[in-house]
Design goal:
Elements: H1 11-28, H2 47-77, E1 85-96, E2 102-115, E3 119-130, E4 133-149, E5 152-167, E6 170-185, E7 193-204, E8 211-223
Antiparallel strand pairs: 1-2, 1-8, 2-3, 3-4, 4-5, 5-6, 6-7, 7-8
Helix pairs in contact: 1-2
């Protein structure tokens, strides 16, 4: 790897050197540009005045360059950063496709973006309650995002889930798969707070091969 030369000239020093050389070339021609409205002959005693013009002009240009660089740095700092994580808090409902009835419960998830515009990861937990059973679903979803506008996003996701069920005091654990469509809405373009709607389909690879459709929704909280 190459080390940065900390003793080398800075941008302002190089710019000042270029300006100095250009203006000295003008002065060396024995006349300042006639577009300024006058000329100075270096052979005359007024060479000191010409040097003063050079120094003043050089200082003015270097100050302008410094202010320009500061303005660019300020604009870069104003660029809004992507959220480090987005928390989803809401409720969920599921309907069995095999005659198991419906269930309801709260849901919470955290979402991060390892590859911007290509991949988002969501890990969540959802307990679902029905009259005779309690089911805990823990999933990890891989999502492909699409930006619809400054205030709306759409994602398609799929991934595995671990299903822990307690039905009639009989506990079972199984692995399943989940597919979701995630719609996210942000009232502000800064994406600090919003809300989401996420319909999905679940397939249980365990005994009985339970299938269900469901929907969850709630609020979004972005952390930077």
């Amino acid at each position: 790897m190459f080390k940065k030369d900390l003793t080398g000239p800075t941008l302002l020093e190089m710019s000042g050197f270029c300006v100095d050389q250009a203006l000295r070339t003008i002065v060396a021609s024995k006349h300042l540009p006639r577009c300024l409205g006058f000329s100075v002959n270096l052979a005359s005693p007024r060479v000191g005045a010409a040097e003063s013009v050079v120094n003043a002009t050089k200082s003015l240009l270097m100050v302008s360059l410094f202010l320009c660089c500061g303005n660019v740095s300020a604009q870069s700092a104003d660029v809004e950063k992507e959220p480090a994580a987005v928390i989803e808090i809401g409720g969920a409902a599921a309907q069995s496709l095999r005659g198991g009835g419906s269930s309801f419960g709260p849901t919470v998830a955290v979402e991060v973006t390892p590859i911007e515009n290509w991949l988002e990861l969501e890990a969540g937990v959802t307990p679902l309650f029905s009259p005779h059973s309690i089911e805990w679903d823990t999933d990890l979803l891989f999502k492909k995002p699409w930006t619809l506008s400054d205030k709306a996003e759409f994602m398609f996701g799929a991934g595995p889930e671990w299903i822990h069920t307690n039905e009639h005091h009989v506990v079972t654990n199984s692995v399943g798969g989940e597919v979701v469509l995630d719609f996210m809405f942000w009232p502000s373009a800064k994406h600090k707070f919003g809300w989401y709607l996420e319909p999905g389909y679940d397939y249980n690879f365990g005994r009985g091969h339970e299938q269900s459709v469901g929907i969850s929704g709630g609020i979004l909280i972005a952390f930077r």
